[in-house]
Write a structure and sequence with these properties.
The protein has 332 residues and is of the alpha+beta class. It folds into 2 domains: 124 residues, Tetratricopeptide repeat domain (Serine Threonine Protein Phosphatase 5, Tetratricopeptide repeat), CATH 1.25.40; 137 residues, no CATH class. Helices cover 43% and strands 21% of the residues. The chain has 11 helices and 11 strands. Strands 1, 2, 3, 4, 5, 6, 7, 8, 9, 10 and 11 form an 11-stranded antiparallel β-sheet that branches. Strand 9 and strand 10 form a beta hairpin. Helix 2 runs antiparallel to helix 3 and helix 5 packs across helix 6.
Length: 332
């Protein structure tokens, strides 16, 4: 038989703290629900997240969508992104609806939500929930990688004025004339004179290969490059890679800047994962979840990588990443 004093001690030490914590949690939940019902978008998002993940409450798909929708319709970008993912991937057994996915992801993307922009680029590339459009796919990749966002209406208007194809700087008459003058002014010698063309023409004027394959960093048969200000932005075509969890598809986005001299330049690049292993089976709703399970997620790599490059001749570039061996990229 347990004595009364021992029983009271057990209740005070073990049971009472739990009851107090439960009551405090219930009060917090009540305050959150009250704020959500009054129209607080952040509270609505928090409740939706709880219902989706089953945190503090029992998982409820219907209520998760209901609260996500209320928050997203008020302009909560993360709620729009999460709701779009639910409809796009069918995460956790939710019904896939690509048109609704496009609606909410595009709203969040126009609000400069970076992960929404990468998913929207993928939707335009694949024609998921919207007609295929490679130009708009590239546009949203640009927006996801840049810190500024250009209004979509302005982009479409500029595209109509300028035409679909952007002129290649290497074929620009002014650039060609400048290069010709440099060659004419080069000193005459019996030895072959190496004439380095000015940046960025030196980068864009040729097609480049790495290990006899088209380069994903510089202009080649699989890379599109555009000059913006004093930088060159390049996007590779789609490629395939192997991860320990399986095959993934990706593009490489490179930003090329001039170094100390026109012989030197730097490439900052990042992979955009377009599809990842097991994406179609449940998917991964959180980057944190993917990290904890050592899996990939669609969207940009968390951090970018840098290459230091130097022209060793007019047709050969030596590049080196931090802590890695150097490699050559050569003109074809």
């Amino acid at each position: 038989m347990i004595k009364t004093k021992e029983l009271m001690r057990f209740v005070c030490i073990c049971v009472l703290p739990f009851l107090l914590i439960s009551n405090a949690s219930a009060q917090i939940a009540a305050d959150l629900l009250k704020a959500a019902e009054k129209g607080d978008a952040n509270a609505q998002y928090s409740i939706a997240r709880s219902y989706q993940l089953g945190k503090r409450v029992k998982s409820n798909k219907k209520k998760a969508i209901e609260w996500y929708t209320k928050a997203a319709d008020q302009g909560h970008l993360e709620a729009g992104y999460r709701l779009g993912l639910i409809y796009y991937k069918g995460i956790g057994g939710y019904k896939i609806d690509l048109k609704k996915a496009y609606k909410y992801i595009s709203i969040a993307a126009n609000g400069n939500h970076k992960r929404s922009q990468t998913h929207l680029a993928k939707m335009y590339e694949r024609g998921h929930g919207v007609a295929k459009n490679e130009m708009l796919s590239d546009y949203w990749i640009d927006q996801a990688f840049s810190t500024d966002i250009e209004p979509l209406d302005s982009y479409l208007a500029d595209r109509e004025d300028e035409g679909e194809a952007s002129p290649d700087i290497a074929n620009d008459p002014v650039v060609k004339k400048t290069i010709l003058k440099q060659k004419e002014a080069a000193p005459v010698s019996k030895k072959k004179v190496v004439v380095f063309e000015k940046f960025p023409a030196s980068v864009l004027a040729k097609s480049w290969k790495e290990n006899n394959k088209p380069s994903v960093y510089l202009k080649s048969s699989q890379t599109k490059c555009k000059k913006k200000g004093d930088k060159i932005f390049c996007t590779s075509s789609k490629g395939k890679g192997r991860h320990q969890t399986g095959i993934y598809t990706y593009k490489v986005r490179s930003i090329i800047t001039e170094g100390a001299s026109y012989k030197d330049f730097e490439i900052e690049y990042r992979k955009l994962y377009l599809s990842v292993p097991e994406e179609s089976v449940g998917g991964y709703d959180d980057e944190e979840e993917a990290v904890s399970t050592n899996r990939l997620v669609t969207g940009w790599e968390k951090s970018s990588h840098k290459l230091k490059c130097k022209f060793e001749s007019s047709t050969s570039v030596l590049c080196r990443a931090v802590g890695e061996d150097a490699f050559y990229i050569k003109a074809r």
